[in-house]
Amino acid sequence: MATRSNNSAWILVVVLAVCLQVVFVFADVKQTATGTAINFSKAYFLLDADMEKYICNELAGDEDEPVVATYLQAMTDEANARGFGTGMMKQTIIHVKTETLAQDTESATIHLKGRNRTCIHPIFAYVASLFQLGQTHAFEATLELVKEDGKWKVCGNPYNLSMDG
User: Is residue 10 situated within a structural domain?
Assistant: First the structure.
């Protein structure tokens, strides 16, 4: 009799764990203006072409001259001019703090403040932070976000990323 009760308890624990996992997955998938601002900033500093999925149509440019591709090429050219590979231009952001300055259903203004450091490879950045090697620099930005097709997108002129260069 004790074995049957014990099995029932384990089954109940497993079912509860599965239900909680489903709830956590759905909670994590919900997109927010703050989350979009942070994800865009991470992609921007890491020179990740995926930043394009976080920018609004107005900022993205056209097929002939996409803003993200132009920015990434400019950073590659700058790295080459300085005698580096593009990896030396990548930065990781740490200790990011956000403040929502304004938000309604269709727009938001998010202020970010944090620190960034050169990130040739994420493991190197982690080791450097453990041993306090390298320099970190403060960054601060205010990002304007709008809702397009039900998703938050960064618009305006984030980190001076614009059609004008």
Answer: yes
The two tokens of residue 29 are: 């998938």
Both tokens of 141, joined, read 């930005």
Segment holding 151, helix H or strand E? strand 151-155
**CA 71 – CA 65 distance, rounded (Å):** 10
Residue range(s) defining the domain that contains residue 14: 1-30
pLDDT, one tens digit per residue, over 43-56 is: 999 999 999 999 99
Residues 20 and 42 reside in one and the same domain: no
Cβ neighbors of 94 (< 8 A, separation 6 or more) are: 114, 115, 116, 117, 129, 136
Domain match, 67 and 8 both: no
Average pLDDT on 24-47 reads 83
